[in-house]
Each structure stands twice: as C-alpha cells, then as structure tokens.
Design goal:
Layout: H1 2-37, H2 51-59, H3 61-77, E1 82-90, E2 93-100, H4 106-133, H5 138-153, H6 159-171, H7 173-194
Antiparallel strand pairs: 1-2
Helix pairs in contact: 1-4, 3-4, 3-5, 4-5, 4-6, 4-7, 6-7
Length: 198
Amino acid sequence: MIQVDVLSLLATNLIFSVKIAPLVVVVATLVRSALLLTGRKRAIVSWTRNTLLSFATVIFFPGALVNTGVRYGVCSLFGIDLEGVGSGSTYAELNLFLKVDRPPKVAVLVSALYVSTVASVFIGFTFLFLPVVLLLGAPIVLLSWYLALCVLFNSSLRGGDVQLLGAALQKHPGRGMAELFIALAILIVFYAFVGVGL
C-alpha cells in the first residue's frame, strides 16, 4: 500500500514539476538577482562584496552539487561533449558550471537545459513531500526540507547557462537562432495548454 502511495506521489510530483518548473526558475532567479543587487561595487575591508549572497551560497551549496550533477547527467545523455565541471567565484560566491568541449546545437542545448531543470525541480519537491508520506521522523523531515530548499534555490538561471547558449548561437548563427525561436515557441504553446504554477 505504501509502495503504491509512493509511486502515485512520484507520478503526481513529476507532472507538478513540469508545470511548476518555469515559476521556480523565475522566482529563484529573482531571489538571486535581488541578493546580487545588495552587493557593493568594491570591498576594501571585508572579504566579499556581497555578504548576503555569499552566505546564501554557502548555506544552499548542497543544492548546487545536486543541480550540477543532474545537469551533467542529462547533458551526457543528450550527447553534449563535456570537459567536466568547473567553478568560478563572483562576490566570493562559488559557482559550479559545466565545461563544454564543443558547443552543441541550440535545440539540443535548450532541450538538455529544460530537462535538467525539470529533473532538479522534481528532486527538490521529492525531498519536500516524500518524508511526510513515508512518515519519517522530524530530524529526517527537516533535513529533507533543507535539501529541498537548497535544490530549488539553485534552480535559477545561471551565468554559465547564458554563456553556453551564447557560444552555441555563435557556432550556429542562423540555424541556431531559428532553433532557439522554435524551442521557445514550443515551450510557450506547451505551457499555454498545461498552465504554469499550481
């Protein structure tokens, strides 16, 4: 009976994750952007120009690991040539991103980014709801909710994604732009039918 409930929850969560993914990305990106705007142009005394964003990055870092791992797996499945995982620091905020050997076709890249985003949102909400269904103890529930927040916070649009898309467009200028418009049109039509959010 519990197994049926878990499978039903996962199926419902998958549908919910597909519907809610754009909203999660927008909200997470707005939150990160708001934190980014709290930074100073230069820091003379302190170790970081943006204390709030640096603090949030450290607190929610497990989510960055999950999201990067999911993106790595999905991009590998889509046949994107990966060099590995790199990192960068802005405002003392550690960012993980994929290093790509050769920029893929735009349609392939957009598809991989979309699937990996939905997968990350699915994992985040699974952490949120599954412990409650399994009637786990309070410490496990709190840990799961923390991991859920970490994953969802890191489901924002990242600079590495934009750079990778820019490289793909530069490699395939005419066809790449057409693929981008077609992919966006498909997503807009899809979400016009299924709806976004709750």
